[in-house]
Amino acid sequence: MLPIPKKVVVIGGGAAGMIAAGSAGSRGLEALLIEKNHILGRKLLITGKGRCNITNTVEDVEGLIGSIPVNGKFLYSAFYTFSNHDLIELFNGLGLETKVERGGRVFPASDRSNDVVKVLKKYLKNNNVTVIKGEVKEVVSDNKKVSRVVLQDGRTILCDSVIVTTGGISYPLTGSTGDGYRFAKENGHRVTPLKPALVPLEIKEGWVREAQGLSLKNISIDIFDEDLKKIYSDFGEMIFTHYGVSGPVILSASSYLDDFKKHDYRLVIDLKPALSEEQLDQRILRDFDKHANKIFSNSLRELLPQKLIPVIVKLSNIPPEKTVNQISKSERMNLVSLLKNLGMHIKRFRPIEEAIVTSGGVAVDEVNPSTMESKLVKGLFFAGEVLDVNGYTGGFNLQIAFSTGYLAGLNC
User: Fold this and answer.
1) Model confidence over 103-112: pLDDT tens digits?
2) Rounded mean pLDDT, 183-196
3) Among residues 119, 127, 215, 403, which one has the fewest Cβ atoms lying within 10 Å of its Cβ?
4) Residue ranges of the alpha helices (H) in 247-395?
5) In the prediction, which pLDDT does 189 show?
């Protein structure tokens, strides 16, 4: 008589959940994936502006760990078991063509996140995973061992193990409403304080609203604390918004910022990082010679985006109607310094609902890093954003989800 296969329930049909269920199913387990949304992968569909930055081609596991500022070392086993290269190989094998863009970012060749969800659904089907729509009310354990899952509609599902992959609390409209933290707490786990990560920043200075919608490429940024200690530096793209700043370099920088009640952070943008101050001065001199009889406010069109010109003119304290040939050397040097050091004070994070990921979560010292199983409750596993781990932009957070989900599915 053949033994009855173990039954595993996976709660949450996102990146971590789908790969966890597929991984469990590939072992011949009876895998059941429960998702409260009408569709799977709802958050995946909106990642990367609908293009889905799946992972990053960083060369090795050490490179991956170096891109995870919060509890990166916890992920060694997960990344060694299922690396970024393993993920790309799996997706390619399922029929998803991928491409690599700047910074090693990996996207579907089609630029459609829906194609990523499709191959994950194929992975579920190939491994005989049953998917049901439902909302879990409770994960029940008896004598420190998982026994069943109770749904809001009263259904009870007996099982041998449960993998919690419910995400964080960012983008709540996608279903990430913090259920997993409640399941963890109810089963004795500690949940570390939750805060936004990879989130836009609000700026104190009102002039940023004048630049709303302006995207800047090839700029560099530095962030300093109240003691003028440099907290973060980066190079790349950003955008001004009605409340402050966003874009890749800003989102990454947010991971380094802490309590705004304790710290006074200052953001400094170098608009022309390819030029030294001397080189920029020479460039401005050439423009001024070329437009010697123009007024100052009309002389910067070849140097700056149109939307930024009124802001720079105002901040430079050079009268806008002053003709270029009347601008003094000290005024010009102040302009050079402004372009190389456009400073502003950071007010706070945008709300956690706008964050790409949630920082904080199930305490990793209570989870076995080799299996993703709880150290407190046998048969209870955690994977993905519900854990207290998060990475930089560039595909690293999805890789965390895929690697921890795959590892949980192998060990449940």
Assistant:
1) 899 999 999 9
2) 94
3) 215
4) 248-254, 277-290, 309-316, 329-340
5) 97
Cβ contacts of 284 within 8 Å, gap of 6 or more: 303, 332, 335, 336
- Asked if 218 contacts 247 with a C-beta cutoff of 8 angstroms, the reply is no
Q: What's the rounded mean pLDDT across residues 192-218?
A: 93
**349 neighbors 254 (Cβ within 8 angstroms):** yes
365-172-204 Cα angle (round to 5): 90
* Average pLDDT of the chain, as a whole number: 94
Q: Give the DSSP per-residue string, 270-302.
A: ES-TTS-HHHHHHHHHHHHHHTTTSBGGGS-TT
For the beta carbon of residue 298, count every other beta carbon within 10 angstroms: 14
Domains of the chain (ranges, CATH numbers): 7-195+356-411 (3.50.50.60), 200-349 (1.10.8.50)
Q: How many Å apart are CA 190 and CA 184, to the nearest integer?
A: 7
Task: List CB contacts of 327: < 8 A, sequence separation 6 or more.
Answer: 288, 296, 318
For the whole model, what pTM was predicted?
A: 0.84
Do residues 408 and 76 touch, judged by C-beta distance below 8 A? no
Closest CA to 370 of 45, 25, 81: 81
> What's the pLDDT at 281?
95
* Dist CA 196 CA 283 (whole Å): 41
Residue 201 and residue 252 in contact, taking contact as beta carbons nearer than 8 Å = no
pLDDT at 6: 84
Question: Is pLDDT above 80 for 16?
Answer: yes
Q: What are the angstrom distances between the C-alpha of 266 and each of 102, 247, 254, 343?
A: 28, 17, 12, 7
Q: pLDDT tens digits for 321-332?
A: 999 999 999 999
- In this prediction, residue 256 carries a pLDDT of 86
Give the pLDDT confidence score for residue 355 in this predicted structure.
84
Task: List the end-to-end C-alpha distance of the chain, in Å, as a whole number.
Answer: 23
Q: For 406, phi and psi rounded to 5 degrees?
A: -60, -45
Residue 117 and residue 112: Cα distance in Å, rounded?
A: 9
Cα–Cα distances in angstroms (integers) from residue 324 to residues 288, 310, 334, in the given order? 6, 16, 14
